[in-house]
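Today's session is about reading a structure prediction critically. Students often jump straight to the picture, but the first step is always the sequence itself: look for stretches that repeat, for charged clusters, for runs of hydrophobic residues. Only then move on to the predicted structure, which in these notes is written as discrete structure tokens rather than atom positions. Here is the chain we will use throughout the hour.
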Amino acid sequence: MSAGPSAGSSNAIMVPIYDKIPLSHLLEAAVQKTYHELYTMADVLHSQTNLERKIELIKFACRARQLFIRILA
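Below is the predicted structure for this chain, in token form.
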């Protein structure tokens, strides 16, 4: 008899299947959110100055990047 753990046991954390969301669903939601935000910005930005547009586009790009990084991390 061995005092150590058996060869068949696993130290992985068991997560119930109902707590998992498929990656494809997360990515689809993120793409839809990003597209909606970009579409909305297109309507709003035409009335702003060139500098304000650039600032808003950089902010948008950072938010979108962070969203996808959080999903893939």
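Discussion point for the tutorial: The two ends are 41 Å apart (CA to CA).
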